Amino acid sequence: MKQTLQLKVSQQLRLTPQLQQSIRLLQLSTVELNQEIERMVQENPLLELGEEWGAPPAVVSSDNPETASESADSDAISAEAESTEVKAEREEDFEHDPEWQQDNIVSYGAPEDDDLDGPQIPDKPLSLREHLNFQTCLSQISEREKIIIGLLIDSLDDDGYLLQDLNELMTLLPVELNIGPDDLQSALQRLQHFDPAGVGARNLQECLLLQLQAMPSNAGHRDQAIKVVRDYLEILASHDFGQIKKLLACDDESLRAVNKLITSLNPKPGAQFGSHSERYIVPDITVTKRGSVWVAHLNANAIPRLNINHLYANILKQEHHSARQLVSQLNEAKWLIKNIQQRFNTILKVANAIVERQQQFFEHGAIAMRPLVLREIAETLDLHESTVSRVTTQKFMYTPRGIFELKYFFGSHVATDSGGSCSATAIRALIKQFVQDENPRKPLSDNKISSILEQQGIVVARRTIAKYRESLQIPAANLRKSI
């Protein structure tokens, strides 16, 4: 076969590093963005975080989203970040400007506070294990018993339960400790008398029994509650109050008192302690009402103040570092600032489009939510659906009705008799409202809720009602029935 050389012209789509960075920043949450910025600041000496965060927000009207999105490009991001970008572009070729070093040196220092004698350390909430270990140290028991109780404390989960079998736990202990089953059982019984009541239980039934047994013996209906939890807990869970009434041979008033006492117990006694670090949400968007229209604007506290460290650039210049490396780091800093600006501009555009379409939600709540899909926003803003999906994931909106993820405003539709459509979110809100207003002694079944919606012109199958009810964590009708 003869070998020949041929020229072929073709087009290929390749993502530049700047575009890849822009896509990556767009899908990050605000917390993840701040972590990414801190990493970039550590890697690039020309980047620095400002002493303050954010700037006064720029409100963009929802009346004209096209005009609003155009004005957002210049007004939405903080003035400091914009001036930094302009300054960076003007000084792109700073190595050829002999006056650059003198005109652009920025001095900075740590804030002074004469009123503070030392570092202010915030109080840390006591964890469950610390609380139990403190009680162990105060107990009048031998050091060996304290060690065994400490091993059991380390085996508790965050709710205070000992889910590991004692025999299995004993096989994991060092042989030289010479700990037997009786030692573990004795230590567990002592642990179960610690505060909070119910800690060290191996299941829900034992947890409730420990709390009831810790009550004074003359507490009202205590003995009856212990009998119900010990012998009839499954019947109580199924809300078969008639059978429990017969088994206890009591009247309705006593049965209500027993049920109230049991439901007042804490099924997770360890959850009240600070075992988990809180997950904070920083809203990207805030919504306010201007006149008769709801408008969206960026949350100033969510916008990082990122600057170019001209002082460090001057030092590198004076020390005769490679000009090519310096220009590369400066360009990377400019790309990051520009991509962050683009990220917030895109979020604001999408938020504006959402707020414009969901005006009734902000006026009347979830029952007025209209059906909305990603494609509708993408076509309006001339964006790809995947871009809208990235923008609405882990981005939050602060409204007078609460904080919602942007994805919350999207949902499928259900047909109505009039030929229109109703949002699935609105149907869930109606189901929740029906359940809240129902008679506790005659709760609404899924079929009944479906019939009520059908009377309002909304056709929803019973199995769909059940699916929506379960998503709202609402029990079935027989479990909602009270005495």
UniProtKB/TrEMBL annotation:
<dbReference type="GO" id="GO:0016779">
    <property type="term" value="F:nucleotidyltransferase activity"/>
</dbReference>
<dbReference type="GO" id="GO:0003677">
    <property type="term" value="F:DNA binding"/>
</dbReference>
<keyword id="KW-0804">Transcription</keyword>
<dbReference type="GO" id="GO:0016987">
    <property type="term" value="F:sigma factor activity"/>
</dbReference>
<feature type="domain" description="RNA polymerase sigma factor 54 DNA-binding">
    <location>
        <begin position="327"/>
        <end position="481"/>
    </location>
</feature>
<dbReference type="Pfam" id="PF00309">
    <property type="entry name" value="Sigma54_AID"/>
</dbReference>
<keyword id="KW-0805">Transcription regulation</keyword>
<keyword id="KW-0808">Transferase</keyword>
<keyword id="KW-0238">DNA-binding</keyword>
<feature type="compositionally biased region" description="Low complexity">
    <location>
        <begin position="66"/>
        <end position="81"/>
    </location>
</feature>
<feature type="region of interest" description="Disordered">
    <location>
        <begin position="55"/>
        <end position="102"/>
    </location>
</feature>
<keyword id="KW-0731">Sigma factor</keyword>
<dbReference type="GO" id="GO:0006352">
    <property type="term" value="P:DNA-templated transcription initiation"/>
</dbReference>
<comment type="function">
    <text>Sigma factors are initiation factors that promote the attachment of RNA polymerase to specific initiation sites and are then released.</text>
</comment>
<dbReference type="Pfam" id="PF04963">
    <property type="entry name" value="Sigma54_CBD"/>
</dbReference>
<feature type="coiled-coil region">
    <location>
        <begin position="313"/>
        <end position="343"/>
    </location>
</feature>
<dbReference type="Pfam" id="PF04552">
    <property type="entry name" value="Sigma54_DBD"/>
</dbReference>
<dbReference type="GO" id="GO:0001216">
    <property type="term" value="F:DNA-binding transcription activator activity"/>
</dbReference>
<dbReference type="InterPro" id="IPR007046">
    <property type="entry name" value="RNA_pol_sigma_54_core-bd"/>
</dbReference>
<dbReference type="InterPro" id="IPR007634">
    <property type="entry name" value="RNA_pol_sigma_54_DNA-bd"/>
</dbReference>
<protein>
    <recommendedName>
        <fullName>RNA polymerase sigma-54 factor</fullName>
    </recommendedName>
</protein>
<dbReference type="InterPro" id="IPR038709">
    <property type="entry name" value="RpoN_core-bd_sf"/>
</dbReference>
<dbReference type="InterPro" id="IPR000394">
    <property type="entry name" value="RNA_pol_sigma_54"/>
</dbReference>
<keyword id="KW-0240">DNA-directed RNA polymerase</keyword>
<keyword id="KW-0548">Nucleotidyltransferase</keyword>
<keyword id="KW-0175">Coiled coil</keyword>
<feature type="domain" description="RNA polymerase sigma factor 54 core-binding">
    <location>
        <begin position="123"/>
        <end position="312"/>
    </location>
</feature>
<dbReference type="GO" id="GO:0000428">
    <property type="term" value="C:DNA-directed RNA polymerase complex"/>
</dbReference>
<comment type="similarity">
    <text>Belongs to the sigma-54 factor family.</text>
</comment>
